[in-house]
Each structure stands twice: as structure tokens, then as C-alpha cells.
Amino acid sequence: MAAQQQWQQRFLDLLAGHHSTTGDPVDTGARLVVLNPDGQEALRAALARHFRFMDDGQGVWVRPLVGGDDTGEGYLFNLGIARRRALQWTDATDPRLVDDAVVMDLVTGQLARVEPADAAELTELNRWEEFTDRLTQEEDLALRRLDADSWHGRFS
User: Fold this and answer.
1) Is residue 146 within 8 Å of 63, Cβ to Cβ?
2) Are 11 and 95 in contact (CB under 8 A)?
3) Least confident of 16-20, 28-32, 126-130, 144-148
4) What pLDDT score does 18 carry?
5) Is residue 150 part of a domain?
6) What are φ and ψ of residue 47, in 5° steps?
7) Which of 40, 48, 117, 143 lies at a C-alpha separation of 20 to 30 Å from 127?
8) Residue 22 pLDDT
9) 64 is in which domain, residue-wise?
10) On the CB side of 56, how many CA atoms lie within 13 Å of its CA?
């Protein structure tokens, strides 16, 4: 399998939860860790189970799970905050596998790792999946398309 196919397959498996030791994807998921050029962590968040590769082949759209809050009526996400994010890698290096993660050198100079989520991120991923059960089919499809930078519907 070519290196590009290997990282893409690992990326897909992480997001879908196919790396579960129990066979249940609810036990697993992916998180995104972004490091600044100085090594400082800029972002750590669970990733929703959807993505979209960019047409030019130089990036992928993902949805880091941020902006959630327990409102007393269940855990809700602000969809204006939990919006799509672009991971665009440089022309010089394609994403690669490092240990059990997909590593990307971003055009911003940052380094991004998509890796297995731990307990805190899995909790957030489960909250997200329960939250999305509240969405209409149209709202859910709009989120999964990852084609808009803002959200003007419910939960914004």
C-alpha cells in the first residue's frame, strides 16, 4: 500500500472508530492536537466523525468538538463555535504516519496530529453524538457536508 493510502486509511479508521479493540466504535474516536512552531500546544479536541478532503488534495476539513456546555437540558454545542476547520498541509510534505497517528505539517507552520482519543475526548465525542440526535436530518446533513464556515440555524 502506498504511503498516501496508508495515512488516508489510518485517518479514516481513527475518525470512524475502526481501531476499537472491542469492535465497538463508541469505544474509540480521534482527537486533533495542534502544536505551534515552538512546540506549545495550540489546540486539543475530539473530532466529529466526519471530514471532507479538499479538492486540491492539499488539506482536509474536520470539525473539532469545542463549545459544548451542559445546559440542564442536556449537553449542547454552539455550532458557531464547533465549526469546520481546515488542516492544510504544505507542498513539501504530505501527511505521514508516526506511531499510531497521522501527522501533518500545516501551511501555518504548526504541526497537527490526528490520533486516538483518550477518555476526556471520548466523553466529548459521545456528548456530540447524543447532541446530533437532536438535529433534523437537514441540519445533520448540513454539518456533515463541511462546506460552510458559519452556522445560522438552531444551536448557534
Assistant:
1) yes
2) yes
3) 16-20
4) 76
5) no
6) -115, 135
7) 40
8) 61
9) 3-145
10) 9
